[in-house]
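User: Second chain of the day. Same drill as before.
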Amino acid sequence: FQDPKAQHLVICMESKESYYLTKGGAKRPQPRLLPKLKGHLIESIAWNKTEQTEQSTGAILIGTNAGYICETVIDAQEGLIKKKLYCVEVYQLMYDMTGSPEPVTGLHMELFPHRSGGGEGKWFVLATTPCRIYQFIGHVSRGDVQFQDMFFIFNDSVKIQFQEIPGTLKDSKLCVWPTNTPDPPSAFAWLTGAGVYYSTLIFGDQEPGESLFVEKNLIPYSVVSETGEDKDGKVEWNQKDTVLPIGLSLTKFHCVLLFRDKIVAICHLNNKKVFEEPFNVRRNGPLYAMTTDPISGCIWTHGKLNLQSYIPFRESRNVWRIYLDQDRFEQAQRYAEGNQNNLDIISVRQAEHYFKKGKYEDRFEQAQRYAEGNQNNLDIISVRQAEHYFKKGK
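Assistant: Same format as last time:
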């Protein structure tokens, strides 16, 4: 597990022993055993971008395969690693339907911005398991164990905010976007057995037990299998034949899914597949994992015999059309990128939308939209208004 700035690296072994490596401190850094983490099989880490330095991770959260969320601090300075390191279990997530603990497959922590009215020291923690996603909001203490008080209220007086999506996917994953800015992320994607759960995030004046999720969307895996449409407009797809993905990356407009034999990109604005690249598994072996460089945005995939990179290029070029089809005209104009032909199409469609919705009262607005679209459309304005005139019997 590596932090987004590539300053700290935690290596967890199947023996439940963890090692730490940093580029700070010694000139020739060597992996060092973290004795306080022994006995924990780490599944995820939430890095603290507010407190992190080259010499220290600051207070970070660790998710284990036993369903525990632990807090720890790792200091990179020589001779201080044993003295400074601690590991405290601050919360345990709910068991699954069989009564077994669920692994914490995804963790992300974020400080509320001051402009949101959250005040100083108010944090948001997002945690996922293969079947559930949890939201934690609260203030942290200034003591040695900062997040213990925040999680304690969810055991005592505050009902925890979570959502359950049943499925059989074991290798669940959580991604947030963007990752290369000091501001909080504006969206996230969660890989589940039923599909990719996507939502935007709004950091406002939420209190413990409330939600930051807005514009939630579950992208089904049937989208990946789409090869065409039948006469009724229904996609031919058999759920029994579904192969679940093993990896996930998130960009501004797309969810990128990794399978053993291919990589697929789906636009989360309309749930449409826009890219697919198959791999020759017999010749090169299967794909194993996918990760995203948080600074450059480059997506890396690796398999048994190959390593490949993908760079998202002009992924917003067709976004204006998607927003237009959804009657979201302001967003469509924003992503038209100054193309006058596209702006004309948007203006005409917006005027047509006003007429269909019966908004005849705002005639100046209609005329303005038609005129912006094309000066030849002025005669259409007269016809439309005449139709309304005789319809009303005026």
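The chain is about 20% helix and 30% strand.

User: Great, on to the next one.
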